[in-house]
Write a structure and sequence with these properties.
Blueprint: E1 8-13, H1 24-33, E2 39-45, H2 53-61, E3 71-72, H3 74-84, E4 89-93, H4 98-106, H5 108-114, E5 115-121, H6 144-147, H7 162-172, E6 178-181, H8 183-186, E7 188-190, H9 192-195, H10 201-215, H11 221-226, E8 229-231, H12 234-241, E9 252-261, E10 268-273, E11 280-286, H13 288-299
Parallel strand pairs: 1-2, 1-4, 2-3, 4-5, 5-6, 6-11
Antiparallel strand pairs: 7-8, 9-10, 9-11
Helix pairs in contact: 1-2, 1-10, 3-4, 4-5, 4-7
Amino acid sequence: MPEPSPPAPVVYCSDLSADRFDPADLFDVAYLLSSPAKLSLQAIVLPEGDDNARALDVLAARIPNAPNLSVVSGAEGIAGVLRGASEPANVVAVANVAPLAELLRSDRALFREKVARLFLVGGHANDYALPHTEGERLPIDPRLQERHPERFARSGDSRQSDAERKAFGELLTSGEGVIWLPRDICLWRYAAPQILSDGGAVCELLLRELFFANLQTMPDRFAAGDAPVLLSALPAFLLATQTDPLGWLRLFRTVTVRVETDADTGTVTGLAAKHERPNAYAVVGMDGAALGKVLTQSLRTRPLIP
């Protein structure tokens, strides 16, 4: 039998300390820490002055054999992690991308040597203000914008600063092994309160944090207790373990694309699939129910009772 592949190294960029706390990042970290045979979390990149690292420590303490978490900030912090890595890492950025863009500008040689793939999670692939005149309109959930209008600001997530939006656009068109997961395609609803109930210590913490976050926008505590979490990064983790997208066709579809952005705002101004000069890959379709099963198998330590 062939020897199993070593776990794929991952550097995870997050903004857990943002004013509007997004529990999805904790779900991502829980999956990374719960999959040591496939994924090796090298570091978590948080904003300067982050005050929410304690949630990560509590989460790691509940996962058996979880590695000691390395938390860094800024371009120099990322550079230190990459220089010390024994092999190129998969960088998965769900937020806090400005330090990555700064590192790319200051030391592109290091970036190319030590970043195997750059997964950018966020923004949207389709322009919802103007009709497409060129290229291929990518498939979306037609009700996603109606359900989550806050995810569809003209420049992407309205919570991002101008610097973050500009950095996102710069990275997206860099040509440096980019795989893009646009939120209007990759956002999926995971019914965590129903699926993870009585699932063990990790599930208990995730549900508590999800309930707390939902209470900030839902005054009714019963609605907050039943609301799902919105996730989008799982295809990035799976592609990090197996880079051939054909191996994941039952879960999601990945194609080459040509992306153009506004240099001043980072807004996507042009997108075409099947282009003769692609500069990135993009996830253009996914099965949320199937991805949910993958996530549940990793997070629950107690079996579901039929």
